[in-house]
Specification:
The protein has 269 residues and is an alpha+beta fold. The protein contains 8 helices and 11 strands.
């Protein structure tokens, strides 16, 4: 099976999602009161409809009645009006078994699974909740979130890179030339080299002694307009002749990497 399943009391311990825990508790309360209803279950906190698909059994298959906006944004797809069987992959096959069991036992199920998209793999967690819809029908509300661990990896790689790096929010001269920057992120190597301790809130690059060089800022100001999005190297560095500066201009921020010249590939982190 391509899914990892949890049932009953194990669900609360299987997830850290506040929305899933909230929704499970709400389903239990409404079920105990005999008031299970799609509107009552999904209204209020956490924008549940946007993160959910609603499924209805259609013979031996399941029909997508609703495919939430957040799921469409994450996958670039909209399965509304399609049958689950039309997807045809292993995850869809296994979800069919989960949905059938959920209807059969009338109890929530929590699943984790992956879905490949281009060069990305999304790790999903999904809470499947059965709701009655008339005397002989039922709807499944399937609340889903992407479990985003990429950010943890990126942060670790950035923080522990042997190459000193800074991310800044640019500050410009009246002539729109890059002249300074608020420090937004700084990795551990850069903290040690530039002697930055504690919180970097309100810290500007020009406050650090190595950045108080007019020739450096003139070179960076010249590079900045042509650095969107690729990086551009400069032989000038606030760290001296053994380093080169790599500037990468992003949408609102700029990344400065101070590459040791002993590393031949400037993209190495």
């Amino acid at each position: 099976m391509a899914l990892e399943l949890s049932h009953g009391s194990a669900i609360q311990g299987a997830t850290t999602s506040q929305a899933i825990r909230f929704l499970l508790s709400k389903w239990s309360a409404l079920n105990a009161a005999g008031k299970l209803d799609v509107k009552l279950l999904t209204e209020g906190s956490y924008d549940i409809p946007a993160h959910s698909v609603y499924m209805v059994a259609l013979g031996d298959d399941f029909l997508y009645m609703h495919f939430g906006e957040k799921l469409r944004q994450a996958t670039g797809k909209d399965f509304t009006g399609r049958l689950l069987s039309s997807i045809g992959d292993q995850v869809a096959h296994d979800l069919h078994q989960v949905y059938s069991a959920t209807l059969r036992f009338g109890a929530p199920v929590y699943v984790r699974f992956t879905s490949p998209l281009d060069d990305r793999v999304l790790l999903w967690e999904r809470l499947v909740l059965p709701l009655p819809a008339g005397p002989s029908a039922a709807i499944l509300v399937c609340y889903s979130e992407v479990m985003c661990h990429q950010a943890e990896v990126y942060e670790y790689v950035f923080r522990h890179s042997p190459v000193p790096m800074l991310t800044i929010y640019p500050i410009y001269t009246p002539d729109a030339a890059l002249d300074d920057g608020w420090v937004v992120l700084i990795n551990d190597t850069a903290r040690d080299i530039f002697n930055v301790r504690g919180n970097v809130a309100n810290l500007r690059l020009r406050e650090l002694r190595p950045f108080q060089r007019a020739d450096f800022w003139a070179a960076i100001a010249a590079l900045y307009p042509q650095s969107d999005p690729p990086g551009t190297t400069s032989e000038l560095s606030p760290l001296g002749d053994n380093y080169r500066t790599l500037l990468v201009r992003m949408k609102h921020l700029a990344l400065l990497r101070f590459q040791p010249k002993s590393l031949q590939n400037p993209s190495v982190v």
